[in-house]
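User: Okay, second chain of the day. Same drill as before: sequence in, structure tokens out.
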Amino acid sequence: MQRLGRLWYRPPLLAYGLLPLAWLYRSVDSVRRRLYRRGVFERTRLPVPVVIVGNITAGGSGKTPLVQWLARRLGEAGRRTAIVSRSYAASARVPARVHAGDDPAIRGDEAVLLAATLACPVWSGPDRRETARALLRAHPEIDTLLCDDGLQHYALERDVEIAVVDAARGFGNALPLPAGPLREPLSRLGRVDAIVMNGEQPVAGLPAAVPRFVMTLRGTQFRNLVDPNRVQTAQAFKHMRLAAVAGIGNPARFFAHLRNLDLAFDARSFPDHHRYRADDLRFAAADAILMTEKDAIKCAAFRDPRMWALPVAAETSDALVQLICERIGHAAGLAPAAGHAEP
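Assistant: Same drill. Structure tokens below.
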């Protein structure tokens, strides 16, 4: 998948051989959306408003940091929020609440990260609808559900859709999977409630009528995996021999972040949701090994004092929370929410 992903962000000539599969994918997806629109496939309406944070491209775009930011801000706005995450690449067979320290191979790495960093309930399972129902049975006080990913999960009705776009990579060659990164056509962005740009680079093809927000990811302090109370700035690593690993949707973004901190390192990338083994981190010559928080939760079983995680926090405009609260108010009965009658 990593090799295919690199192909998507190069001149499209090399991807043309995959076009027959890409048009098949696009055709099947179009039929699927039409069947949901006509009611052939069942759609579930939950008793509380649902906010989807997703994207139209495969690979990482910054959804999880945005979900963290939204969960905190919505809580501050008085919403009793919980998070639903699909246990992608995990072995969970039933919905359950996720706790800090749970096995990410069972409950999902993003879900464990969210549970470790937030106070609100986080649940994961193989089916978002069933997971959401189980969560609401266990937490009847919840009045807002945040879904980490799921823009294409049309079986679950939603009241607010937020699409995250990686401004650094844009839409690559703009071809459908597997020839390109697009899960859905670019026109899909015209039907979401808000677009959040991860980064400030201009991206062509965005609909002018949809509210747009810029998000930045901040992170300058590293936390030791063995002793989380040990915190260091980048300055402490300047004269060390460093290795850096990333098993996320876009490892290049993490490595660029480290370079912006003026760090030099031996970089090693792994596929998204990679299940680390001790052998993956045997950098004999390294004084320190740097990684993302998402990678760190999968390295707990064989952590050593050389390993440091870099927490990052999303920052964007509070106007996004205001927009969501207005739409949620509509969903609660003030007026019908707009924009999601059709997939």
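DSSP finds nine helices and 15 strands in the chain.

User: Thanks, on to the next one.
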